[in-house]
Amino acid sequence: MFYLSLIEHTLRLPPSLLSLPLQDAIKKELENIFLDKVIANLGLCISIYDIRNIDGGFIFPGDGASTYTVEFRMLVFRPFVGEIITAKLKESNNDGLRLSVGFFDDIYIPAHRLPKPSHSQQDPEKRYQAIWTWKVESEDDDMQLSIDGFDEIKFRVDSVKYPPIPIEQPEKPFAPMIISGSLDYEGLGPVSWW
After folding, report:
1. Beta bridge partners of 136
2. Does residue 63 sit in helix, strand or coil?
3. pTM for the full model?
4. 153-161 vs 189-190, strand pairing mode
5. How many angstroms separate the CA atoms of 175 and 161, rounded?
6. Per-residue pLDDT tens for 76-114?
7. C-alpha–C-alpha distance, residues 76 and 58, integer Å
């Protein structure tokens, strides 16, 4: 789920940061550039782990800033396909579920990837658009298990996608990384089920 990625980046260090020690100034500028951003096929940048190498310090003509080539390691969030992750319910509607791991909210469980047979119904408490219920058939009796948002939910990662950046501003916010998952395996779903 979390990886250390080695990155080399050419960094323009603004003159306002030159009063700091070089290592601290570069780390601060790298954090401004990368943290909470998604890099396609790499993942969501969580933190700068360490700086391995700093080269340069050139000042180009007509520019008051120094330019460095920096090699650093960064902690990124990128789940792998098949991984089991625990999340909280953020949104529920007739299309499925939207989950959150706290720092990342674009996790979707489509309706066809919920346990079978499942159905949605209106939420009487109006916390969500719909509540999904799994009908468990057994020899003794039938049980109804609901996904109501009170428990953490275990899901399996089916895909991680990096959609292209739209040219025009869409009506809803753009998600640069989308995780699709499923609950239709044993042991998955709200932890109280098991």
Report:
1. 143
2. coil
3. 0.83
4. antiparallel
5. 10
6. 999 999 999 999 999 888 889 999 999 999 999 999 998
7. 29
Burial class (CB in 10 A: 0-12, 13-18, 19+), 128: buried
- How far is Cα 120 from Cα 123, in angstroms, rounded to an integer? 9
Quick one: tokens of 123?
A: 């939420």
> What are the contacts of 52-60 at 24+ separation with CB within 8 A?
52/6, 54/22, 54/23, 54/26
155 token code pair: 């899901």
Mention every residue, 6+ apart, whose C-beta is less than 8 A from residue 85: 1, 79, 101, 107, 154, 155, 157, 181
- Rounded to the nearest 10°, the torsion over CA 148, 97, 156, 181 is 180
- pLDDT score, position 29: 94
The predicted-structure confidence for 12-71, as pLDDT tens digits, reads as follows 998 888 889 999 999 999 999 999 999 988 999 999 999 999 998 888 888 878 899 999
Place of tokens 């579920």: 97
